[in-house]
Design brief:
This protein is of the alpha/beta class. The chain has 14 helices and 19 strands. Bound molecules: ligand PMT.
């Protein structure tokens, strides 16, 4: 985590009932030593008065593109901010930001900044689940915006559901985390990291296979985060890097393409021999056809009886032959009893950590841009990482790994 002391944080507050919580966020950021500049939308002032922020923040509230002393307040705010935080962010502000529309000082500042941006949505469940909002959030995540929450719980009017502003502690932590990314850490420099990503494909015949829904997004998020922090990364994967850059070559980033569990096992074992950290984010098929057909199976021949056999358990064999000092991270894709099933995998596979995701949870697991995980460590620690971008999940897990390595080095 980066200290917030001296950091210039633009605190954008938009017009939802959760605006009253922004007062406390402002106070907490101030307590951490940040320089807080509140920017309120007109809607926000229907829920909370600007005098409150004037009294608490480092600078007086700004609201207008035109009436401030500064002739171009949005560019000054955007250029001088270390981080822009929007809490709460309404569907309107999220939509305007995603579409590049600057209709007020807050949205203009968002578009004028190159600083990390943290957006904390809060709205009613129906609005949060509307495809337009979901698309806008996906666009922002793709552009590197940090999305925090929302949480599920009690909403205005007594309804229950997804859409409640995240906890204030999570929001302040996310600002600190976003600044870490902005600071371009290099705390994994010199480390060799192996990441598996995507779902394996086990052939039934030359045109069909047993597969799963893994997109590789979570694995690549780990790979990119580790490379961004200075590690040299090998990705053993069944899929291209998601996003517009696809298969482009990235420095410090080697991609080994495989299809089946067998191929992934061989490539991962070879790469893992010299690795400091191995991250098994791939969804590896547990079973494969014993004898895939050499030609396409024909419907006219009836429903085939396909005999299955287990695939090699890559994680378990890496756990059994782990070199001294290597940190091995397994995943658990669960649909129920997440913590118990993950604990069983942690104990059974010789991993140092298991990152467990409930793949039935909303906006989490397969193919989403966001995830929500429970991290179980072999020493009994359990960390909960709430819903956030897959890159932020990777950051949180790699923070644990780096702290773990530092701790081990100090003990030696
Ligand atoms: O790729 P995304 O669309 O972004 O989705 C991310 C994800 C849901 C795939 C990812 O977060 C995840 O949970 N990956 C693990 C999926 C999985 O195979 O879980 P599992 O509980 O079946 O396996 C447990 C662990 O053993 C995993 O680390 C897996 O890689 C490993 N395994 C499983 C079977 C096998 N034969 N060999 C293995 O090494």
């Amino acid at each position: 985590m980066t200290s917030l002391a001296g950091k210039r944080i633009v605190l954008g507050v938009s017009g939802g009932i959760a605006a009253y919580k922004a007062v406390e966020i402002c106070r907490r950021l101030m307590d951490e030593g940040a320089h807080v500049i509140p920017v309120l939308t007109k809607g926000a002032t229907r829920f909370v008065g600007r005098t409150t922020f004037d009294a608490l923040a480092s600078e007086r509230v700004q609201m207008s593109l035109f009436d401030e002393d500064d002739p171009i307040p949005h560019t000054t705010l955007g250029q001088t901010a270390d981080c822009v935080l929007v809490a709460p962010a309404t569907a309107r502000v999220i939509g305007a930001y995603a579409a590049g529309i600057s209709s007020d000082l807050l949205t203009a500042t968002l578009i004028a900044t190159r600083a990390p941006v943290v957006v904390c949505p809060a709205m009613h469940t129906e609005m949060w689940e509307h495809p337009a909002v979901a698309d806008n959030i996906a666009t922002l995540v793709e552009r590197g915006v940090h999305i925090v929450g929302p949480e599920s719980g009690r909403l205005a009017g007594g309804d229950e559901g997804a859409g409640r502003l995240s906890s204030l502690a999570d929001i302040v932590a996310a600002v600190s985390q976003a600044l870490v990314v902005g600071d371009q850490r290099s705390d994994m420099a010199g480390l060799s990291v192996v990441v598996t990503a995507g779902g394996t494909r086990e052939p039934i015949d030359p045109v069909r296979y047993i597969g799963n829904h893994s997109s590789g997004k979570q694995g690549y998020a780990f790979a990119e985060e580790a490379a961004g922090r200075g590690a040299s990364v090998t990705v053993v994967t069944t899929v291209d890097r998601p996003g517009p850059l696809g298969a482009t070559v990235v420095p410090g980033f080697t991609v080994v393409r495989v299809d089946t569990a067998e191929e992934m096992a061989a490539a991962t074992a070879a790469a893992a021999k010299e690795a400091d950290v191995v991250i098994m984010a791939a969804a590896v098929a547990d079973f494969r056809p014993v004898d895939p057909a050499g030609v396409k199976l024909k419907k006219r021949d009836g429903v085939p009886a396909i005999e299955l056999e287990p695939t090699p358990d890559i994680l378990a064999s890496l756990g059994a032959s782990k070199p001294e000092g290597q940190i091995l991270i397994g995943f658990a894709a669960e649909t129920c009893d997440v913590a118990d099933n993950a604990a069983a995998k942690l104990n059974g596979k010789g991993a140092d950590y298991i990152v467990a995701n409930d793949v039935t949870a909303e906006n989490a697991g397969f193919a989403h841009d966001t995830n929500e995980v429970l991290v179980l460590a072999s020493d009994g620690r359990v960390h909960s990482v709430g819903l956030r971008s897959k890159r932020q999940v990777a950051q949180a897990v790699l923070d644990l790994v780096v702290a773990d390595r530092d701790g081990r080095a100090n003990v030696r």
